[in-house]
Design goal:
The protein is mainly alpha-helical. The protein folds into two domains: 106 residues, no CATH class; 83 residues. It is built from ten helices and no strands. α2 packs across α8.
Length: 210
Amino acid sequence: MNSYIDKFPLPYCAAKFLMQWVKREKHLHSAMSTDPQDTDIFNALAYFQVSRNFKGLRRKADCIKIALSGVLKTQQLTSELDKVTALAENFFLNFGSFNLSASSKLLWLSYRSPFIVYDSRTVKALSSHFGYKFDSSNYAEYCEAWRDEYRKNECEIELAITSLPNGRAFMYQSNLSDQELFDLSKQSWFKERVFDIFLWEVGGDSLPRA
């Protein structure tokens, strides 16, 4: 992995996610974690570039909101793995697409940790670059591979986040204090999304176009 870290340094990934969080994801999370409206659903899917998979989305955003609420309230779905898969199955019934990517991203925006974002580029990074073997349509297997690689690098990710105050002159300006930036290094959801950025960068590097 060291060669990839040299190419995509973790402090760079931390700064990039900080910018994404402050500029967009913080506001989307605030909307999705309270009482999301149809516009919030549309904005969330558009931000993560998965809205194209939902035909007639502007007319059916309410269906997604109902499905999301139903998955979260169903007591039989006891784990985040069950919830992501159940929501993807609902998407298949209503839109004809078993969309783990959209499902995981909506649930992450709603609750953040413990949900792990599923993305085709992170799948490629784990399978093509780090040698993990798993069924790409199986969210549980994907998360197992993701978490295994994450555990190997969690300490370095945390250190990269603690270095953010040192790079203020070279990154997106935020109103967060040095202490607030340091506190982010202890937040599981923030560290996990920094790792997502790293995998996303690796997954887009020197791979054939789909």
